[in-house]
Amino acid sequence: MKHVNEEINILDENWQADYDTHQEMELFQKLANYKKNIDIFIEQLKYFMDVKFQIQRMEEKFQKEDFQHIFFKLISLTQLRDNVIEQLNPESKDLQTIKEEFKDLNQFEIKFYSALYGKIADCINLEKENPLQLMEIVKIVRNGDKLLVNQGKAPKFVPEAEKEIARFIEQRYLNQMASVSGPVAAIDNQKFIVQDLIKINSKVASRFPHDFDIFNLYFNNYKKMILGKLVPMMDQCETSLSRAGRQDVQFNEIRDRIQGYMAPFMVHLKDLIQKYIETSLERDKQDFFNFKILQKMIKEKQPLESNFPEDIFKQINDQIGLVVSQLKNDNFIGYIEMINLTFIGQMEDEIEQLKKVIKFNFEEAKKDVNLQLDLTLKISLYINNFQRCIKYSLETKKYVLESVKQPQQIEKVEESFRNLSQFFRNQLGVLYEQLKTVGFIEIQSEIIPQLFKQKWVDSDLIKDLGEKLVEFFDIISLSISLESQLWNIQKISFQFLADLYFEAFIMSYKNCFPNICTEFYPKYCDYYLVGLTEDQNLKGKANKQQKQQKQQQDQEQSIILMNKELMSMLIARDQERVNNDYLETYEQNLGKTASLVRKQFKVFLQIIDKKKIEIENLIVEAIQTYKLVALPLLEIGLTKIRDDCDTEYKNQMMKRMKDLLPKYLDLQQ
């Protein structure tokens, strides 16, 4: 025990001796902790120094209404602000300075949330103008609350939105009632509440999640306005009437109107309003249900190649007949617009799938004639059905206009059906191109490549080409029921045929010249093989080379001339074949197309045969006939085929043509 006491005394003496050191160590620890906290605070301040720049970025996003990007950036900045302020002593002199530094952030925060909640409150108009933005904003506030809950904080964004909705409804109610004079007018004016609730129930509610009950928010706040504003007015009116002993015309009128028109309103105001709203909503639900039925019919209609146009438009007309007596004015117009937009939306999805199928099958059709025939028939059916859709939609428009009287509403109906018809016309244009591509597979792959080649010289491929075209018409006539539609396809096909013909000529010259004789007259190839003897002296060799070069040039000119004459002869033969056998047969349907094809052949021949002095006038005619195709066509005709134009003259003509072409195209536009 004595030993232990001695040890304690020694430790106590040592402690007393080292007391100052211990004090310094405690101070050092405090300083270390203080430095650590200061470092953390400085890091936060470094981020804070970037706040003003971040606000500028958010202002730019705010102008573009990019609310989602702003929202999460704003949360991070406001949490930084709150953390910095919490760490300061409430009595610190720096507190006010720090708050002042966050002034811009505070102002932007107020502006942003005012805009955000204001858009949610005015959800009826926002759903009409930009439903996607409404859904995005609702998602933002709900996700914001989820973030707060995950951080152990109470949700605040949805509650704030609900408060703003209440303020918005109160202000809307007061604005609606501001110009109302007297209780009768006040009662009559309550219909705007029902209209708002119908819109909320039928359109807006679907944009909100189930736990954000926008309908009940509107309903309860409007009910609060009625009980708080309208009921006291009615009570005051009733008191005034009971005290009025004189025969006052105004009071008698008020009494009669109230007793005859809204007697139950005075006794059972709350039940009456609720029942009235429920009845209106039930009727609107029925109308909405009718639209849902029709929407389902459109989405589940028969395939594009079936007889769907007649069936679907009959169903549409039947549904319109059911609701025309229930929906009035703008509601009826809105119903028609929804039908057309639903129709377009459904058809767009099917057409995109159709394009993918055609693209896939096209590659297979190149190898399989039967698949080519099947694909041609299907595209023809699509064309026929889309044309029938235009026809039936015009009949439906006529039916709808019988129930519409006001000029503004008539224009809305006209515009809605114009958009529907234009949609089908646009799709017809796409299908025409696909029909040409599929129907001309054999023509493009087997016949056109042989034009202006050796095989073409030996056989009448233009006849084969025409027969294929007639066969193509026979196939599509099995699917196309409207003669005007068949005629239109014939026009497009003949123009396409002419374009292919002339393009084949151009490409042939581009690819074959200057060795064109090899392509048309293989026997003339020997003219290029001029042998040289090596036992002549140099002078003799030089003279012989000059003679050979001149001889070769003469031979080349002769070959070009012969080929030009051959071209003229064969093109003239094809022109006669096309004009007599094909264009004459279909002329009554082709109209301007037949005339244009004839003119193209004529100009084509003139490029080769026309006298030099007339070439300049021919340029204008060629541009008018061929438009964009004129440039390569004339360039080849002038620079490759003709031998009577020197280089300078050719360059002058080409420059004139290039100057004229854009001017002519501008005039056409």
Automatic annotation (TrEMBL):
<protein>
    <recommendedName>
        <fullName>Exocyst complex component Sec6</fullName>
    </recommendedName>
</protein>
<dbReference type="GO" id="GO:0051601">
    <property type="term" value="P:exocyst localization"/>
</dbReference>
<dbReference type="InterPro" id="IPR010326">
    <property type="entry name" value="EXOC3/Sec6"/>
</dbReference>
<dbReference type="GO" id="GO:0000149">
    <property type="term" value="F:SNARE binding"/>
</dbReference>
<dbReference type="GO" id="GO:0000145">
    <property type="term" value="C:exocyst"/>
</dbReference>
<dbReference type="GO" id="GO:0006887">
    <property type="term" value="P:exocytosis"/>
</dbReference>
